[in-house]
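Hi! If you just cloned this repository, the fastest way to understand the data is to look at a raw example. We've pasted two of them here, unedited. The first protein comes first, obviously.
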Amino acid sequence: MLYLIACAAGPTEYIDDGVRIAQAKGWDVCLILTPSAARWWESRLDELEDLTGHPVRSRYKLPGTRDSLPKCDAMLVAPLSCTSLNKWGAGITDTLALGLPSEGVHMGIPVLAMPYFNQAQAAQPAVPRSIAALRQQGVLYLDGETGYEPHPPRHGDASRFPWERALDAAAQATRPTT
């Protein structure tokens, strides 16, 4: 079971492709979206629920409400926006999409994150601090050759997000060590 957690970044327009690739690799996928990302799919959330076979979540459940998410084997936060990276790195978990991996990594669940933002956003001084904070906690942050390298402003191609690379890393992170 994979929690695919998507922020409001360009590749989320193609999150259905990410789900299909994950399913082709053998994952049962639960999709969690930031509230902003959920707005992008608002009129088509039923398509995503049909595709995954699970409710698509974007908000915390109400107290006393049964959780609709099954236990997961891994969490992949992809695409991770610059805003969500910096909130998560600072310990701000005001959305379900940040709260789940923030707790999960400290519960022994493999948590991976692949960013998608441009070089101007990456130049913010908070970005390297946030990446270091996540790595210090045990999050596998996929950047550079093993993930996604920030693109020049206005030159990103969200349709070419490297889902395969992220999902291969998730599979590797869940393999038993011998």
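Ok, and the second one:
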Amino acid sequence: MTPAAPTISGPKSLADPGAVAARHALVEVSPHLASLRRLAERIRAEQDRPVPEADPLDGGVSARLLLLLETPGPATGRTAFVSRDNPTGTAANLFRFLSQAGIPRADTLIWNAVPWVIHAPGARNRAPRTGEIRAARAYLPPLLALMPGLAAVVLSGRVSQTLAPDLAAARPGLPVVAIPHPSPTYVCTSPLVSRRIAAGLTEAARHLGLSG
């Protein structure tokens, strides 16, 4: 069962160091994250790179919706979380779009197609290289195996969408929805981007039985 949420949560709420500390304390007592943390530790050992934690306020292995972004951004160095509450425009957009779609936090797990940090400390984020995407594919089947109640996957951005064949092979028949990446730079290019994200998440909500 997902633990009760602490008081501090919401868009960019992890800008507060106290909220970050409280969230990390919650990780330690969250059984729905235990197997995910073991997978993350395996990835850290094999890739020798940092892997942020899943947010304990989300569904963990009990989630029915897996939302795959591309790779952890620089903000994860401050929070060590993959979270819609991270102090970035991308996370704030994701928080807003998921809320508008009516998808509860307990139904979601936010992860990354390349789950480790690929940029050097202090450097700006960059797109994953072909070899990094290829190496990351090995960790998708173990992730899916941890999520018996998974009902749909949302692939956000070009990099995550390259994993569609791997998803089909690992979990045949699982609904997969492709949406644009919610980064502010991309969202601001055209109103159509926001509409495509909203439409995709509405479709995902239907797969979860959350809307008509």
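That's it. A detail worth noticing about the second one: Strands lie at 53-54, 65-69, 81-82, 108-112, 152-156, 176-179.
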